[in-house]
Write a structure and sequence with these properties.
CATH architecture of the largest domain: Up-down Bundle
CATH class of the largest domain: Mainly Alpha
Strand content: 5-15%
Helix content: 40-55%
Number of strands: 8
Strand order of the largest sheet: 1-2-3-4-5
Structural class: alpha+beta
Radius of gyration: 26 Å
Order of helices and strands: HHHHHHHHHEHHEEHEHEEHHHHEHEHHH
Shape: globular
Number of domains: 3
CATH topology of the largest domain: Butyryl-CoA Dehydrogenase, subunit A, domain 3
């Protein structure tokens, strides 16, 4: 970390010296508009010296932060429209390739087709703290893209570069424990996206006991900012509910008795890195870490939510239910329905097969699985192992998943095969228990559900 700090200080020093070379009069105006920011971008691309280039990059990023939402949208639209490839240069490269194709001409064509905005983004990245600010800029871009399809090309270019700068080779896996610096622990609390961490005591129960682990990926340019983290519970068997794992008074599992590692929460912390996947690498590396530490572990599973299930039940036109079943499902809006000894079994008889259908049959208009969590784990080579009835009775779990959770099983010898089946053919690898729920869907009798 000391070498990173030295390099950052050096860049900052160069930047400050470069600012004096710019000799720009006056302080930046808080109302600086996008057109003046574009002038700075042109100056940055004009190819000045190293010190002035770093200074201009820092100036661009500083002034970008002062823009309001309308100014940022105008800035992005200008980059999307006016900073594509040099058309004259590209046309010449195309003609040269057509006249006499060669490796050299192909290389010229490749570089001529690159949008100018990619070089602009590279130069902005030279500024002290530039990488972090470009990630934040991309988060702004994502927030403004709805209804502005013309920004898609700009987003592709930003993602292209961020994917290179944040590839697996640059990421460092670190274990998070109670000795981790407080500023990092605060981010674990803030960005936990699956099961809210209420306070510091709650956090300690998740990372400090002998049967708990937490790991995160870090990047050298964002030293104290975890990119993604996973919380792990060590258990004797595969769990079917989240509450016992998070209970304050739960009995600790000695590591020598642990046979299962449960990934019960995976959270991204950087919105600007959305679409750049680290999760598969994280899970696989954590599995390797745990196997080295605890060779007796036999099962690596998740305990995952089903965040799109209730929305599908209520809104989709292809939910396979009868009128009687549809009326029964209206009880999902009834407080405490799962505690009703007469109602709960009827709901289970309808909801479990529908959950199996949701995973194995239901698809979006583009043919994709509806559930983002399922796409993530199945795309990483996991198997849909079990549907857990009333696995999450939190308000969020009931509202989004009708209380249902699922286990995805990571069997190391099957990961590649499962991944290929899903990626190439859209095949969902599922256990026989899940498949039986689906097969039994048509044989369920109305008197079993409603009597």
């Amino acid at each position: 970390m000391s070498s990173n700090a030295f390099f950052s200080d050096l860049l900052a020093s160069i930047s400050e010296r470069g600012r004096t070379l710019l000799r720009r009069g006056g302080a930046p105006d808080a109302k600086q508009d996008a057109s003046e920011l574009i002038e700075l971008c042109e100056a940055l691309l004009s190819g000045r010296g190293e010190a002035s280039g770093i200074a201009i990059a820092r100036e661009v990023l500083d002034r970008y932060r002062q823009l309001d939402e309308a100014g940022r949208l105008a800035f992005f639209e200008t980059l999307a429209r006016g900073y594509g490839p040099d058309r004259e240069r590209l046309s010449q490269a195309i003609e040269a390739w057509r006249a006499q194709p060669s490796d050299e001409d192909a290389s010229d064509l490749h570089f001529a087709s690159e949008p100018r905005r990619q070089e602009l983004i590279r130069r902005l990245n030279r500024a002290p703290g530039g990488t972090s600010e470009l990630v934040a800029l991309r988060a702004d871009l994502l927030g403004l893209m709805n209804g502005h399809r013309d920004l898609a090309a700009l987003d592709r270019d930003v993602v292209h570069l961020l994917s290179s700068w944040f590839n697996r080779g640059f990421l460092v896996l670190r274990r998070i424990d109670w000795q981790t610096p407080a500023n990092i622990l605060e981010q674990i609390i803030r960005y936990e996206a699956v099961h809210e961490i209420r306070d510091w005591d709650d956090l300690r129960r998740r990372i400090d006991p002998v049967d708990r682990r937490c790991y995160a990926f870090f990047h050298p340019a964002l030293v104290d900012e975890p990119l993604i983290f996973v919380e792990v519970a060590l258990t004797e068997t595969i769990p079917a509910a989240i509450a016992p794992l998070l209970a304050e008074d739960r009995a600790l599992v000695p590591t020598e008795r642990a046979r299962t590692a449960v990934f019960y929460s995976i959270s991204n912390t950087q919105k600007g890195l959305g679409g750049i996947s680290f999760g598969s690498f994280l899970i696989k590396q954590v599995v390797e870490e745990l196997r080295r530490e605890l060779p007796k572990l036999e099962n690596f599973v998740t305990l995952s939510p089903v965040p799109g299930f209730v929305a599908w039940l209520k809104q989709a036109s292809d939910v396979p239910v009868s009128d009687e079943e549809r009326a029964l499902l209206e009880n999902l809006d009834k407080s405490g329905w799962f505690e009703d000894a007469e109602l709960a079994p009827k709901m289970r008889a309808v909801l479990e097969p529908l959950a199996a259908h949701y995973f194995l049959k239901a698809r979006t208009a583009k043919g994709r699985m509806i559930d983002s969590v399922a796409r993530f784990h199945l795309g990483n080579g996991a198997r849909l192992e079990r549907i857990d009835w009333l696995g999450d009775l939190s308000p969020k779990g009931l509202r989004e998943s009708a209380g249902i959770m699922v286990n995805y099983l990571y069997r190391l010898e099957d990961i590649e095969k499962n991944h290929e089946a899903y990626a190439n053919h859209g095949e969902v690898i599922a256990s026989s228990a899940v498949k039986k729920l689906l097969k039994g869907e048509g044989r369920r009798l109305l008197d079993m559900r409603l009597s």
